[in-house]
C-alpha cells in the first residue's frame, strides 16, 4: 500500500510541476523575437572601369572578398585610407572609389588578363569549364610563388645513368 501511495504522490507532484511549468511559460513576458540584424547594405559603385557597371554594391563586395582571399590580401592592399573619414574604431575608412593605389591598377590589368585568358584560350580547349581565376596563379599570395618541381619529376639523368646506379668510387 505504502508503495502505491508513494508513487501516486510522486505522480501528483510531477503533474503539478508540469502544470506549474506550463503556466509559468504561458505567463512569462513575451521575449523579444530572435530577429537577425538587418542585412548590411553596400553603396552602389561609382568608379568601375573593368567590372560590369551594372553590378550592385553587394555583388562588387562579393567579388572583392574573392580577390582578397585569392591573393591573401586585405582591402587596404588596393584601397587608400581616407584621413578625413574616421570610422567608429578611430581608424580612417577606406575610399574604395579612389584610384591612387598602384595595386588597384594592377588588379584591373589582372582582371582583364584573366578574362582574356578564359575567353581567347581556355574556351578553345575541351575543358572542365573551371577556367582561370585569380586564385589559379596567386594561391593565397599577393605575388605568385614560383613552382618548385618535386625532385622525382626533376631533370632526367643523362642517358645510361640512373638515380639508383652506384656512383663509381675513385680508386684508392
Ligand atoms: C587586389 C586588389 C583589391 C583588393 C584586395 C580589394 N579591392 Fe576593391 N577594388 C579593386 C579594383 C581594381 C576595383 C575597381 C574595379 C573596376 O574598375 O571595375 C575595386 C573596387 C571596389 C569597390 C567599388 C568602388 C567604386 O565606387 O567604384 C568597392 C566598394 C571595393 N572595391 C571594396 C573592396 C573591399 C570591401 C575589399 C576587401 C574585402 C576590397 N575592395 C579588396 C581592387 C581590390
Ligand atoms: C595567369 C596567372 C595570373 C592570374 C590569373 C592573375 N594573376 Fe595577378 N599576378 C600574376 C603574376 C605572375 C604577378 C607578379 C608579377 C610580378 O611582380 O612579377 C601578379 C601580380 C599581381 C598583383 C601585384 C602584386 C604586388 O606585389 O604588387 C596584383 C594586385 C594582382 N596580381 C592581382 C590579381 C587579381 C585581382 C587577379 C584576378 C582578377 C589576378 N591577379 C590574376 C599572375 C596572375
In short:
The protein has 172 residues and is mainly alpha-helical.
Biggest sheet overview: 2 strands, antiparallel
Gyration radius, in Å: 33 Å
Task: Tell me the distance between the termini.
Answer: 107 Å
Label the overall shape.
elongated
Number of DSSP helices?
5
Distinct small-molecule ligands in the complex: heme C
- Order of helices and strands, N to C? HHHEEHH
Structural class: mainly alpha
Helix proportion = 40-55%
Order of strands, widest sheet? 1-2
Into which percentage range does the β-strand content fall? 5-15%
Low-confidence stretches: 1-6, 19-26
Number of strands: 2
Give the overall average pLDDT: 83
Describe the structure.
- The protein is mostly helical and 172 residues long.
- It has a domain at 57-138.
- It is 41% helix and 6% strand.
- It contains five helices and two strands, in the order αααββαα.
- It has helices at residues 2-27, 57-71, 75-78, 102-121, 134-138, and strands at 80-86, 92-95.
- A two-stranded antiparallel ribbon has the order 1-2.
- It is elongated, with a radius of gyration of 33 Å.
- 3% of the residues are buried.
- Residues 1-6 and 19-26 have low confidence and may be disordered.
- Bound molecules: heme C (HEC) (2 copies).
Amino acid at each position: 500500500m505504502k508503495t502505491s501511495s508513494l508513487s501516486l504522490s510522486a505522480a501528483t507532484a510531477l503533474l503539478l510541476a508540469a502544470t506549474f511549468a506550463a503556466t509559468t511559460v504561458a505567463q512569462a513576458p513575451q521575449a523579444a523575437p530572435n530577429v537577425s540584424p538587418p542585412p548590411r547594405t553596400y553603396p552602389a559603385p561609382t568608379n568601375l572601369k573593368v567590372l560590369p557597371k551594372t553590378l550592385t554594391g553587394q555583388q562588387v563586395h562579393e567579388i572583392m572578398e574573392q580577390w582578397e582571399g585569392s591573393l591573401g590580401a586585405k582591402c587596404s592592399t588596393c584601397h587608400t585610407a581616407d584621413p578625413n573619414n574616421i570610422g567608429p574604431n578611430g581608424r580612417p575608412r577606406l575610399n574604395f572609389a579612389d584610384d591612387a593605389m598602384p595595386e588597384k591598377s594592377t588588379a584591373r590589368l589582372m582582371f582583364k588578363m584573366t578574362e582574356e585568358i578564359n575567353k581567347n584560350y581556355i574556351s578553345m580547349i575541351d575543358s572542365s569549364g573551371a577556367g582561370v581565376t585569380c586564385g589559379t596563379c596567386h594561391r593565397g599570395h599577393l605575388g605568385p610563388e614560383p613552382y618548385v618541381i618535386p625532385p622525382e619529376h626533376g631533370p632526367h639523368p643523362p642517358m645510361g645513368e640512373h638515380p639508383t646506379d652506384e656512383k663509381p668510387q675513385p680508386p684508392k
